[in-house]
Amino acid sequence: MMARRILAAAAWLVGSAAILIAAAALLCPGGRCRLPQIDTSGLALVNGWRSNGLDTFFSAITWFGSLWVLFPLAALIAWTQSRRSGLRTSAFVPLSLLLASALAYMTKLVVERPRPDIFSAAIPLPGDWSFPSAHTMQVTAFLLAILFLSKDKCFISTATGAALIILVVGTSRLYLQVHFPTDVIFGFIAAIGCVMAARQLTVEQRNIS
User: Fold this and answer.
1) Of 11, 70, 151, 167, which residue is the least packed, with the fewest Cβ within 10 Å?
2) DSSP character for 130?
3) Positive or negative, the Cα torsion across 64, 66, 69, 74?
4) Nearest to residue 167, comparing CAs of 178, 175, 177, 156?
């Protein structure tokens, strides 16, 4: 049974990696990155929103996708969950987060897509590569894992809150001009597979309600 779950987890991770590799092949064929219309139009759109107030708001809210913020929260959730569901299930949230983060940064090193330079950035550009958005992958994995552990009575409110936070954090990466829309979109999709892989390795089906 455990061997089957390990194989299923590996399949989810391979699927996520395949999505990112396929997207990278389209965006940076032969190592020469190009800008599809969705990227140029998306960044132009959010650049039109620029204001001092939104600069402050998005500069603050983007930290909700940072590993420095999310990992301590994941560790706290794991500690709380271990008292109710056991050590294995308690690893679900932090493992989901770490798998997404590791896949994001490994892909960055392989693809080497430069950061946007169409418009001026609202914050200093990060020193790593652009594709995919690690902030988007991390916040998606973190909140989706929490959503899997939610109870029926609060599922709708939790799902709504999670979707809103993911949307705002993803938008912040575009507004700040540190990521392209395709970085965010494919990062979101790939994060789902990371969560499903972590679920196979940690959470028994009966514990998800």
Assistant:
1) 151
2) -
3) positive
4) 175
The CA distance from 96 to 194, in Å, is 6
Query: Can you tell me the distance from the alpha carbon of 206 to that of 6, in angstroms, rounded to the nearest whole number?
Result: 18
> Between the CA atoms of 187, 112, 169 and 70, what dihedral angle is there, to the nearest 10 degrees?
80
What confidence tens digit (pLDDT) does each residue in 87-126 have?
788 999 999 999 999 999 999 999 999 999 999 999 999 9
Single-letter amino acid code for the residue at 194: C
Mean pLDDT of 57-72: 97
Among all chains, which residue has been given the structure tokens 């597979």?
193
Q: Which of 129, 96, 111, 141 is nearest to 23 (CA)?
A: 111
